[in-house]
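[Automated response] Your request has been received and processed.

Submitted sequence:
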Amino acid sequence: MGSILRPTTIDDEAQLIDFLTRVFSVGRDAPFVNPNVLRWKYWVPRPDWSDPRSFVIEKGGQIVAHAGLWPVTVRTGSGVERGAHMIDWASDPQTPGVGVSLLQRLTKSYDFIYSIGGSDMTQAILPKFGFRVSTKALTFARPLRPWRQMLQHQSKDVRLPLRLARNFWWSRTPARVLTPGWVATEAAASDVSGTEVLTADRDGSFFHYLQQCPAARFLGFHILNEGRKSGFFALSVVGKQARLAGLWLENPSSECWRIAFHLVQDAALRHTAASELVIRTAAEVAAAAATQAGMRLRAQTPVFLLRKGNRGAALPLHFQMWDNDSAFLGSDRAEFLT
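Generated structure:
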């Protein structure tokens, strides 16, 4: 009996949850298969992307492979390119090769496919199909509320007092000094249109979609310089952690990035109860500014990219946290990086 490739619908929810929990060997309480999250990821309409966002290969009426898509559209010198990051990519171990077949068929439909890290198996497979390491995504973090973090930390061992002392000093050195004339003001849900002028890859409708996420709370902020809009950033709050989902600047200089990162930290303290802030970027200028603003590097993750007709060229993406499911994936259990 042959196999069938098709997009999923909400009618597939129960079978898809059964398949993903079995293949990934997780319980039904795993956050990524929460029914509300699954519906939002794959079947809630997105104004910025009308195509399906979840595909399966079916054999004999049973799902044997699945790939979710986290789509992104970028504007390049040659026009607009449509691509995606694959999420929840899985295949039945009893049906060898079906997951690779799904990957091959999907790559023909988009201008690019990328993967920020992935399992050891994923990172071993992708280069065999033309993916190359385009860059490294750098993850930085800084404690915000070290006393509260101590009580919430996932590692309560003999090192806890030393961690508290380190994080207390780290949270205050260097000081979060805001530059005169620069402020971050929270953006109302109706006041995020036009952000594509700054971002080149996201618009206001994408932020509206994020605000419907059942797994995280998203907050948007305009960056003002002497009262003039000069940037935009979004924070997500997952459990006890604030994450910089994305940040864009009209003038992406090193100094403006540093100023912006101080504003991000201030916003996380004023508008959330998070004990830690995490950011991710692949831009060297932003990484240097993050260090200047008191963030410390916690992880380096390869970014695998397959791009049609121009495999040697990089994408104009910083691979920030909302360029895949990192902006919202997690649980109520603390998973601090500091």
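Summary generated for your ticket: The chain has a mean pLDDT of 90. The first helix runs from residue 13 to 24.
If you did not submit this request, please reply to this message.
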